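To illustrate the input format used throughout this study, we show a single complete record. The first block contains the structure-token representation of the backbone; no residue identities are included at this stage. The design step must infer an amino acid for every position from geometry alone.
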């Protein structure tokens, strides 16, 4: 029998773990539960034990358990450790390597895969301290599921912070148990197995393109490449092999990423086609829509009394649409960006349909927003299921959240197949 240790944190969502335990046991998965002190304010050891049909563990200094170093035994006998709900406080203690109660001692003593399902108020989830702790845990190889967007238990509160629904948790747990079994049979390291994008190839485009008017002048835009470069770095941190195709930017190449530098839209398309196949393709570059039909071979001179030269423009290739409608080697997940100045969501919804993309990340790039060249972004994620409006975040946080969602999407697709 496969067995997990379920660490239940102290949040209102703890009640969902009763249903989670029941559904896991229906699938033949054994559950040993560890309750934090705060969790016992929401669910009782008696109710949890009735469903696990096993003893419930609560105390690091239990005389009987610790005579046999119980926290180590718990961590080693499980095939997977699941933390649900994971509160902001519990995430902070995990990130700092604390072991001052049974839950954190088990987590620090384990050599097994760990899945964390956060649940907290949206402002707590988006607080810089929590984002920093999540990044550290992901770098340590901890996997995350959720949180989801929706209404909170507090009246009038809504946003990203809900515990993932039980069926999603069950699917992810079953998939990770299979991963752990394969890793054990092949001798793979825990750290390699834990990276959610390990073995995946992610293609990212970034920055502007420059379309020559003559050897001196060009048509371009104000894209800095910060968002695309952050996405490439976030994908690499999750274990992916990343190819970043970048237009002209003043940014250093991200560590651990293969970078191909291009200038024009046509060069970017050629580089993209040479890079495919990929599992995920993220088109964050601000590609110029038009180019000059016949760029001057020498600098175009301005003479007194002469009118401005007339430039004949032709349309550039649509890289997103070309790849999204590609067959048979279309990436499993194609993500485009929509930089708009008005009717942002409406234009993004239409763009997803016309381009054939799976997701569109839409943002308002009007001058008052300061998105071009800035470090912050406020985006809407448009999918077939609808529109999610994310709160303002740094571009690094947007990149991390997007890549975690992409990893979860690929895993869910595998399960569905």
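Output of the design step:
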């Amino acid at each position: 029998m496969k067995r997990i240790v379920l660490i239940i944190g102290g949040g209102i969502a703890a009640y969902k773990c009763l249903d989670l335990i029941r559904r896991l046991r229906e699938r033949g998965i054994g559950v040993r539960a560890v309750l934090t002190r705060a969790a016992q304010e929401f669910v009782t050891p008696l109710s949890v034990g009735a469903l696990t049909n096993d003893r419930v563990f609560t105390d690091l200094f239990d005389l009987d358990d610790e005579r046999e170093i119980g926290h180590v035994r718990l961590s080693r006998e499980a095939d997977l450790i699941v933390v649900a709900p994971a509160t902001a406080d519990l995430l902070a203690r995990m990130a700092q390597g604390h072991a001052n109660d049974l839950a954190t001692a088990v987590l620090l003593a384990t050599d097994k895969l760990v899945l964390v399902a956060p649940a907290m108020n949206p402002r707590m989830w988006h607080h810089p301290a929590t984002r920093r702790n999540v990044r550290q845990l992901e770098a340590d190889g901890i996997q995350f599921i959720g949180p989801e967007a929706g209404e909170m238990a507090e009246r009038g509160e809504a946003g990203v912070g809900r515990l993932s629904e039980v069926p999603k948790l069950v699917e992810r747990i079953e998939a990770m148990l299979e991963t752990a079994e394969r890793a054990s049979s092949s001798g793979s390291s825990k750290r390699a197995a834990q990276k959610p994008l390990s073995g995946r190839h992610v293609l990212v485009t970034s920055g502007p393109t420059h379309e020559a008017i003559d050897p001196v002048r060009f048509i371009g835009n104000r894209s800095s490449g910060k968002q695309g470069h952050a996405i490439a770095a976030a994908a690499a941190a999750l274990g992916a092999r990343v190819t970043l195709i970048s237009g002209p930017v003043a940014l250093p190449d991200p560590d651990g990423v293969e970078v191909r530098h291009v200038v024009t839209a046509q060069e970017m398309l050629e580089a993209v086609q040479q890079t495919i196949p990929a599992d995920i393709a993220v088109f964050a570059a601000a590609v110029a829509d038009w180019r000059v039909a016949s760029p001057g071979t020498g600098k175009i001179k301005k003479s007194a009394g002469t009118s401005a030269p007339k430039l004949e423009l032709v349309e550039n290739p649509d890289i997103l649409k070309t790849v999204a409608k590609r067959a048979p080697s279309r990436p499993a997940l194609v993500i485009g960006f929509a930089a708009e100045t008005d009717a942002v969501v409406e234009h993004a919804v239409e763009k997803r349909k016309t381009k054939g993309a799976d997701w569109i990340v839409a943002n308002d790039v009007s001058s008052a927003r300061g998105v071009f060249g800035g470090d912050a972004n406020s985006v809407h994620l448009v999918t077939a299921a609808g529109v999610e409006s994310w709160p303002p975040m740094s571009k690094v946080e947007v990149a991390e959240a997007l890549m975690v969602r992409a990893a979860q999407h690929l895993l869910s697709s595998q399960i569905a197949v």
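Structural context for interpreting the output: The first strand starts at residue 3 and ends at 8. The two ends are 24 Å apart (CA to CA).
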